[in-house]
Amino acid sequence: MRVMVFGANGQVGRALCKYLLSTGVDVRGLSRDHNGGDILQLADVEVAISQYQPNVIVNAAAFTNVDLAESQVEEAYAVNEAAVANLARCAKAVGALLVHFSTDFVFDGIDEHPWGEEDRPNPLNAYGRSKLAGEKAVVQSGCRYVVLRVSWVHAPGHKNFITSAMDWLKEKNSVRVVHDQWGSPTSANDIAWAVKAVIDRAMRDSSVDGIYHFANEGFTTRFDCVRFIASQLHSRSNVELVPVSSSTFKLPAQRPLNCRLDTGKFKRTFGYIARSWQDGVRETIFWK
Q1: Residue 234: what pLDDT?
Q2: Is 258 helix (H, G, I), strand (E, B) or coil?
Q3: Taking the domains of the chain in order of start, what are their residue ranges?
Q4: 3-state helix, strand, coil in the chain (%, to 5)
Q5: C-alpha distances in angstroms, 21 versus 5, 29, 112, 119?
Q6: Which residues of 8-25 are buried (b: 16+ CB within 10 A; e: fewer)?
Q7: pLDDT tens digits, residue range 168-184?
Q8: 127 annotated active-site
């Protein structure tokens, strides 16, 4: 089996390539600095896919800067919709399964229940709208696909909420953190393991094609997540943590307050249950 991974230097792409290689899968990881790895260069991407003839294409490349997307809307859509549509077209041409990542930000976060796949998306910001447009491009392409909506992704060695919180706790005596945003910090390693479960099942059964929610088990607020990190970093556990509302920070992009995802469909279909969010965060904190 041949798997081609776009965005191989990102949080998810790097974890996925490492894990698939460890299981003996033939993996070709591409990033923007590889010929054919820049998903905006449509002709190069087409050549790379045509030459490699992958059985599975994983798109881990995306425009993920939520605030910057508000002022760079065209750029966000170019990466998150147009390039995704091209990948889907290429996947169909070579008969490959496309595994594509989307986001909890396709929901407005107004309701308090964990979001299911059948709930109506209603993004609050340009990033969420561009990712939803990418989902629709995949579904409408006619290729085989599994779209994974993921939540609060983190990995060591990358900039994300967990590593940023670690920096705040090391550098400051007092940290303000929003207490009204709910979600599940999700480890890139768990996402990599989930993708392997998807591939193993989907290559045998095309009926599993569709959209799924995946995240580490359990829910927390951003404030309680930082409090957990502080408890793990015992030398900084005395840092003052100040809970504040989301309206305190005047950011360009509005965030949904409820990013909790119902992952039941994924677990029933693929038989993989992720670790707790605490175990995933602990791994990122103490990664050597």
Answers
A1: 82
A2: strand
A3: 2-159+184-217+260-276
A4: 45, 20, 35
A5: 12, 10, 40, 36
A6: bbbbbbbbbbebbeeeeb
A7: 999 998 999 999 999 99
A8: yes
Q: How far is CA 66 from the centre of its chain?
A: 13
CB distance 117 to 139 below 8 Å: no
At 207-256, the pLDDT tens digits run 999 999 999 999 999 999 999 999 999 866 788 999 999 999 999 999 99
Region for 176 from its dihedrals, namely left if φ exceeds 0, alpha if ψ lies in -120 to 50, beta otherwise: beta
Cβ atoms 160, 236 nearer than 8 A: no
Backbone angles phi and psi of 202, in degrees to 5: -70, -30
Handedness of CA 117, 164, 73, 89 (dihedral sign): negative
- The encoded tokens of residue 151 equal 């939540």
Tokens of 18: 């490492």
The neighbour count for residue 196, using CB atoms within 10 Å, is 18
Q: Structure pTM?
A: 0.94
Catalytic: which of 77, 127, 145, 212?
A: 127
Looking at this protein, which amino acid is placed at residue 58? V
What is the architecture, at CATH level 2, of domain 2-159+184-217+260-276? 3-Layer(aba) Sandwich (3.40)
